[in-house]
Amino acid sequence: MGVHKALILSAGQGSRLHPMTRDIPKCLLEFSGRTLLSWQVSALLANGLDDILVVTGFRTERVEDHVRDLARMTGAHITTLFNPFFQVADNLGTCWMAREIMDGDFIMLNGDTIVSDKIVARLIAGATAPISVTIDMKTAYDDDDMKVHCARNGRLVAIGKHLPPEETDAESIGMLAFQGDGPAIFRSQIEQMMRTPEGVERWYLRAIDLIASAHVVGTVSIHGLPWQEVDYPSDLEAAGQLTARWQAPSRRGDAAEESQSSSDIAYHPG
């Protein structure tokens, strides 16, 4: 997959992290001396994704200032797009605002997911379907996990928070790759859904769930590589510990991460 464009969805406030996010967007929370957004940009740039659009909403001016600083420091093309409907629409609406950039291959990342450059590299290497969902596996899933049901060949069958345990094989980490026909398929589905009364209340992964019934949606496993969603107060300490380990050059666990079998990487059509 040859891709240079990335889309980061950072319009939300992160109200479940109050009072920390009462006046600061979640993406500007700091972990190990760097903002969440900075960690994301670093992982993307390390893999050649140097054309990055950040969709903003809550306290947009603060995110815009930070993005300008990141662009100046890195020399990359990092820009923002303000979503004025962030308070009344869910992230499907955020995707709709950014639909004009969906004219070529791109990677999309939730604004509250901390990932390493190795995870981005795994997705790029393993994305062979028009749309690929990055997944991880664990022993049990809670009500807030975005659960994934896969066929034996790795093709995505269904995705949603309310999948029953017997149909849950993994969870989405909030990062997807779109290539070939994938961007046009996704954009068309978004536009159809946003024309309905329920459109503003939908998550974009509902669009992926609907697409999977008619098109090939693949999965790419990053099992064995650590990542962290920042959604609840309990996530803050975990994110701080994870990023601190990444900063240590001799952190324990590197060998285990590097030896992860490539056989887990992706769904291969056919």
Structure notes:
The protein has 270 residues and is an alpha/beta fold. The radius of gyration is 17 Å and the shape is globular. Helix content is 31%, strand content 22%. Strands 1, 4, 5, 6, 8, 9, 10, 11 and 12 form a 9-stranded mixed beta sheet that branches. The protein has a two-stranded antiparallel ribbon with strand order 2-3. It has a two-stranded antiparallel ribbon with strand order 7-13.
From the N-terminal CA to the C-terminal CA, the straight-line distance is: 18 Å
Helix count from the secondary structure assignment: 8
Strand content: 15-25%
- Rounded Rg: 17 Å
Primary descriptors:
single chain, 270 residues, alpha/beta, nine-stranded mixed sheet, two-stranded antiparallel sheet, 8 helices, 22% strand, disordered C terminus
Outline:
This protein has helices spanning 36-45, 60-74, 91-97, 117-126, 182-194, 204-211, 233-247, 254-258; strands at residues 5-10, 30-31, 34-35, 51-56, 77-82, 106-110, 113-114, 131-136, 147-150, 156-160, 170-178, 217-221, 228-229. It has 270 residues and is of the alpha/beta class.
Layout of secondary structure:
Elements: E1 5-10, E2 30-31, E3 34-35, H1 36-45, E4 51-56, H2 60-74, E5 77-82, H3 91-97, E6 106-110, E7 113-114, H4 117-126, E8 131-136, E9 147-150, E10 156-160, E11 170-178, H5 182-194, H6 204-211, E12 217-221, E13 228-229, H7 233-247, H8 254-258
